[in-house]
Each structure stands twice: as structure tokens, then as C-alpha cells.
Amino acid sequence: MCDILSTPLTSVNQPAYEMGKVSASILIDMINGVPQKEDRVELKSSLHIRKSVAPPKTNL
């Protein structure tokens, strides 16, 4: 969708399928009384830089 806008927006791509898979696994473990090893799960995301960003201004 971001590619077809008049100004292509920079966006972050999050791994939705993997997020659901990990969430379901954690939920099933919780239902079965399995203690959680971690309080936080981090999944890799990617930044897609498009034309809505510019280099920082320099102070002259």
C-alpha cells in the first residue's frame, strides 16, 4: 500500500505470522501450566525507507 501513495511512506514491516505463531505457543503453554522462560519476546522487524524521509538539516 505504501508504494502506491503519492509520497511513498517509510514503514516498519513486522512479522505478523511469526507474532501469531509465538503468541499461540505461549498461550498454549500457559493453559498447560508451563512456566514462561522469558518475560519478553523480540522478533526481527525491518525498516523500509521510502521518499517520506530526508537527511537531517545541518546547522551552518
Sheet of most strands: 2 strands, antiparallel
Give the SSE order as H and E letters. Answer: EHE
The coarse silhouette is elongated
Unreliable runs, pLDDT <50, ≥5 residues?
Answer: none
Secondary structure: helix percent: 25-40%
Number of helices: 1
Spatially, the strands of the biggest sheet line up as 1-2
| pLDDT averaged over residues | 87
- Taken together, the total number of domains comes to 1
As a percent range, the share of strand residues is 5-15%
N-to-C span: 38 Å
Structural class: alpha+beta
> How many β strands by DSSP?
2
Estimated radius of gyration:
19 Å
Description:
The termini are far apart. This protein has one domain. By secondary structure, the protein is an alpha+beta fold. It has one helix and two strands; from the N terminus they run βαβ. The mean pLDDT is 87.
Key attributes of the depicted protein:
about 10% strand; about 60 residues; alpha+beta; about 25% helix
Write the layout of secondary structure elements.
Elements lengths: L10 E3 L2 H16 L14 E3 L12
Antiparallel strand pairs: 1-2
In short:
With 60 residues, the protein is an alpha+beta fold. It is 27% helix and 10% strand.
